[in-house]
Amino acid sequence: MDMLLEALLSILTLEGLITILAGVTAGLFIGALPGLTATMALAVLLPFTFTMSPLQGLMALGAVYMGAIYGGAFTAILINTPGTPSSIATTFDGYPMARQGRAYEALAAATIASVVGGIIGVAFLLLLAPPLARLAVVFGPAEMFWVALLGLTLVASLSSGSLLKGLLGGCIGMLLSTIGVSPIGGETRFIFGFPALQGGIELIVALIGLFVIPELISMAAQGRGALPESGKLKGGAGSAILRMGKHIFSKPINLIRSCIIGQIIAIIPGAGGNVTSLVAYNEARRFSKDPASFGKGNVDGVIASESSNNVMVAGSMVPLLTLGIPGAPPDAIILGVLLMHGLRPGIDLFTETGVLTNGFILSMGFAALFLLPVGLMGGRLIHRIVVKTPFYFLLPSIAMVTILGTYALRNSMVDVFIMLLLGTVGYFLRLIGIQAAPIVLGMILGVIAEKGYVQTMLAAVVDPIPWLRLVANPLSIVLACLVVLSVATTLLPGWLERSGRMAKAKRDEEQAP
Amino acid sequence: MTLRLNTDLAAGVFGLLFAALLWFPRESMGRLSIIFPRAILVITVVISLALIVKAFTKPAARRVHVEGNPVRLAVMIVVLFVWWYAIGLLGFLLATAIVFFGLTWYLARVEGPVTMRRLAQWVPVVALLIGAFYLAFTQVLNVRLPSGIWS
Amino acid sequence: MKFATTRWVGSLSLLAALGIPGMALAEYPEQPITYTIPFDPGGESDVTARFQEPHLEEILGVDVNVKHRPGGGGAVGWSEFQSSAEPTGYEMIGVNIPHIIAQPIMRENAGYETDGWKIVTFFHTTPNALIVPKDSPFKTLDDLVQYAKENPQAVTLGGSGTFSANHLGALRLEREAGIDVTYIPFTGTGPLPAAVQGGHVSGIFNYSMLGVQMQDNARVLAVASEERVPALPDVPTFKELGYDIVGGAYRGVAVPKDTPDEIVNKLEEAFAKTNQRIAEKQEPLGFVMTDITDEEVDKVMQQLKSAYQPILEEAKANQ
């Protein structure tokens, strides 16, 4: 406890607080730009920390990380573009809310959820790091395969309308993810003779293309901006914030569930923030009394997504700080910084250099707190810009930022072309009922599923029946059962209803006294 | 604009075409590389066939509704690709200046004719927008943008 | 924030202050140098470039901009560099062995050639290390070899990538010890610590750095360097144990083929000086600093090519 107090005092200086504030703000703006991910925000701002002391440098980077993950929500809500992959699920209900003129409500809900998520993540990290870290190493290739399948069952709920089309979208996404160098075989696949395709289709490139470009095309066709101009606030910004705060805290189950999901997934190395928000969203919908309203502007969807992905920020540091295992891609950079300062992940980090480590952890909590003022003010500003700007300026501006962001990701004009191509095709696919979300989900999980499956099969070459390795240990059996259960609970209600059995069952129930 | 189109059939055919696109040039891939894509390709084909069957038995929507003006839709798509090509040719700044201004003018005409005066007023606004993002990316984020023929 | 103008002015004034006399003779460099890293930020290559950047800037007196061009295990950046970089000395790219040897052999169209540039220097190597979980039954390398002899293919060794330094190391161990193990590639170094600590593989073939990083939770059986790695003084080399396996990744920089010699020499010098300054920070992490230039580069390349080529070609035939 002394150490914690000392750590607290070491960050509660004017300099420390300014560092956090600057980090959160910088992260927020970079995260809000499509194409510029949290990983990139950290990489770009890394050199500025070289001149700082180790603690100050880590504080700055932790704050940037927190800000960037949260910043993704802005564009997700306002222009249907996940600024970072971790806010994909925020678009599902955030953008419909914005289209209904409730953009600021969505932003306020996202902000409050992010703040709570960020702080809960820090609490998990401070109190439960060692036991949680043990969880991180139990996920081997076979388990990862099942985790990916579990994620893929989300397709069923993400495909509004036709399940078959959703599945087709998922398959297309998985196939897109196989372009480039094969993760296990090491050969190039489906590159059609272009060396540039060896790099594959980057998730972010597809994400921007599939989400932004169709929206831009239809905005141009309809001659409208992203948001209706009548998007005035009922009773001003203050009352929107209050209303959302009340909504969130009066029914905290959604928030709590999302935070726990966020923490568990954050620990699984390789799954990372891309998946957390999707899973939390799906569960929020599954347990909702009114699942049909999801995807049409239900604020609970935004809350689930944004709270879970901000838990991930501190949450993914659990395996990083204790075992040196980066839980999410941006953590790899934090690991680099730790090593650069001569800090080796492990128990020493919590004992010998405990003041530093605890200071870093606590500073992330402060960063989460700072999201509240920075986010609410910044949100107000960006919201006003998007609503007030005439669409003929807004549209080319969004297009420009999209091109810039995509280019900056890998310094590649080829990526920009791929982004535009996927976007155009995506527009027509959307017309025939194949949505962007299952495609992107397929891209995220296809890689995980492939690696898990092929690695398991490789390790099982000596076994008589290799695929039994997939269910060789208790955790993978549990996960496999969860997959079956998830499929059943998503499909059964619709199925029963359609075959009329539900109605009959109801009648029987009424007749039975 | 509303088109008559059996969406199940369209989706099924697209799935088959996409699978064919990847299947035929698959080269001589090793077992470890092909195992996963092959499985997914098979599933894709099965789902596509199921969609095609469904298209003839119980089709979903038979109409596709395209919101807005189809000409502007096509122009927007073309403009995006022209923009991409122009950046490689002319460099980011010049290409973006031209395309951005042109696109703004084209879109603004939706609300009625645009006078020369308004056009002239936009020049500084567009310049400021492009300049701000250009500087942010090149100076703050240290991204080297394509300079096209000017390099 | 980094504003180029202020930095430019800064470096100018620095030059003026130092009043370097040689400036009149050799004008290079006078504009910012782009240093491309063909990998993602956060990896070993990137971390090293970050270490080098400020020192290179100070020594060369101009900005050095690190730019990432990841994809295809480096191949995307390398093919772009060979097809478009100008031999002016203002463009250089990080190169890694064995990547640049293995990819052109193993891929139909990697888009670049192993010798399609001038390699300025290899500034460090990271030798392979064989790491097993702390509770592993294999206390020594001999335990592992013995078990693998009795149970072909049952020992699973994880590593980063296919036909990478790790994979080639595992293949050489198979040849040298006459055993048959199963190599399981992972994408990058990131997932390896979890694979070893969770017992998902019998061991991993990775770089010495990971061995240093995981001291608390794992055991390093051997390292594939000529001499013991300074950061792991208690770990024997494969050579000491009777297996002739020396290898790992070499990292360096290359410039386009026709770059003038004076420029190459200047860069060599700058990297050598930089190395001396950052050694203190990098050595404890498990890097082995080197200063391989000129003919030595060709010698190393020849030696490694002849070591790897037969292994690679055999593997390709088996695919």
UniProtKB/TrEMBL annotation, chain A:
Residues 17-441 form the DUF112 domain. It comes from the Bacteria. It holds the Pfam family TctA. InterPro entries: DUF112_TM. The keyword Transmembrane applies. Keywords: Membrane, Transmembrane, Transmembrane helix. The chain crosses the membrane at residues 12-45, 57-79, 106-129, 135-156, 163-184, 190-213, 318-340, 360-379, 391-410, 474-496. PANTHER family: TRICARBOXYLIC TRANSPORT PROTEIN. This is Putative tricarboxylic transport membrane protein.
From TrEMBL, chain B:
The chain crosses the membrane at residues 6-24, 36-56, 76-107, 119-137. This is Tripartite tricarboxylate transporter TctB family protein. Residues 13-146 form the DUF1468 domain. It holds the Pfam family TctB. The keyword Oxidoreductase does not apply. InterPro entries: DUF1468. Signal peptide: none annotated. The keyword Transmembrane helix applies. Keywords: Membrane, Transmembrane, Transmembrane helix.
Automatic annotation (TrEMBL), chain C:
The keyword Cell membrane does not apply. Transmembrane segments: none annotated. Residues 1-26 form the signal peptide. Gene3D superfamilies: Bordetella uptake gene, domain 1, Periplasmic binding protein-like II. It holds the Pfam family TctC. Keywords: Receptor, Signal. InterPro entries: BUG (IPR005064), Bug_dom1 (IPR042100). PANTHER family: BLR1237 PROTEIN, TRICARBOXYLATE-BINDING PROTEIN. Belongs to the UPF0065 (bug) family. This is Tripartite-type tricarboxylate transporter, receptor component TctC. It comes from Modicisalibacter xianhensis. The lineage of its organism: Bacteria, Pseudomonadati, Pseudomonadota, Gammaproteobacteria, Oceanospirillales.
